[in-house]
Amino acid sequence: MRRFFVPRDSISGDTAVITGGDVRHLRDVLRLGPGDEILILDGYGNQYVSRIARISQDEVYCAIISASRRTSDPSVNVILVQGLPKSDKMDIIVRAGTELGVSHFHPVITERTVARPDVEAASKKVARLSRIAVEASKQSGRATIPAVHDICNLSEAIRGKHIPPAAADCIWIVPWELEENAGLRQGLRLLECTGDHTTPEVPGTVVCFIGPEGGLTRDEVLMIRDAGGISVSLGPRILRTETAAISVIAAVLYEFGQLGG
Question: For strand 60-69 and strand 46-55, is the pairing parallel, antiparallel, or unpaired?
C-alpha cells in the first residue's frame, strides 16, 4: 500500500487531505484515483488506512477507513549533533540516519567547519534536509519523521532546549581521534570512562557528537566532556565524517538491541 505523510492539521475526523508535490506524484506518476486505498501517516506514529474520494488539481481528499499506532522506531532515542560537512555529505548522513532510526539531526558550525552558509542558504539547506528525511522515512517504513533543526554553533546546540543534558538515562558520546582510554563499546556501557559513571540500564537517549572534516578540536571535545559527555575512540583508522556518523549510529542501536536483536 502506498504511503503518504500528511500534516496533522490536514487530518480531521474521517477525512485527510493530501497537498503539495504528493498530489502530482499520486495522480500522474502512480496513476492512483478514486477508490484506491493508500496509507496515510501523520509523522507522529499514527497511521490511517484511507480510500481516495476525490482528486482536484492541488488536493487529494481521502476517506479514513481505520486508524492505528505504528511502532517501528527504536526505543532508544538517538540524537545526532553533526558538524556541518562540505558538499552533499549532510544529505547522505540525514538519509542514512533516518533509515537507521535517528530522531533528531542538529547540523552545527564548529571551529573546523568549512561550509558556513549565510542565513538564507542555511534556511534552504535545512528545508532540503527535511525533505530528505521525509523521503527516507517513506522508503524505510518509519511512522515518524525525524526533526532537522536549524544550523547553529556547537555551543548553542549544547545549551539548547532540544538536547537533553547528560544524565543516568541520557548518554553523550563524542568520538575523538586522540582518545586512548576508552573505545566506543566501553563508552556506550559507561565503564568508568570518566571515573564517575557505572554501567547503566539501556538509556532513554544517546546523543552522538560528530565533527566535520578535520574533526572536533580539543577545546570542543573538552566542552562536551565538561557537560557530561564521554570521549571515545573509533579505532586506529581515520573515518570520513559521514562514515563516522553512520557507524556510530549503527553501533549505538546494535549495542542496545535496536538493530538485529
Answer: antiparallel
The CA distance from 133 to 261, in Å, is 25
Kindly report, residue by residue over 124-141, the tens digit of the pLDDT: 999 999 999 999 998 888
pLDDT band at 80 (very low <50, low <70, confident <90, very high): very high
Query: What pTM was computed for the model?
Result: 0.84
pLDDT bracket for residue 179 (50, 70, 90): confident
The CA dihedral of 210, 213, 214, 215, to the nearest 10 degrees, is 0
Distance CA 139, CA 96 (A): 11
Which amino acid is located at 93 in the chain?
I
